[in-house]
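haha ok so turns out i had the wrong file open the whole time. this is the CORRECT one, sorry everyone. sequence first:
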Amino acid sequence: MRTLKGTVVSAKMQKTIVVRVDMQKKHPKYGKHYRASKKFKAHDEAGAYRVGDTIMMQETRPLSREKRWEAVSLVRRFKAMTDIPEAESPESEAVKPPVHNS
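then structure:
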């Protein structure tokens, strides 16, 4: 079975994630390397993956009209700015100007 590594770009569906796989290709005539990407729909039974996560997925039997891949493992969790605790965020250290009531 084929396996691919990609980045989750959407997790809005139930039990389904959209994964973008980036590839580096070589132009057949000119020989220049260029980047190409393709999106795949993958099955995520537990809903464990979020947008930005890098995952491994493997080919499986057709699960729906467009879904032929299954998320297997997490390679790297995406660290979003919302994951930082309030005490460490830069906004909490900023001093607010005094408010004058006139």
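The first helix runs from residue 90 to 93.
again sry for the mixup
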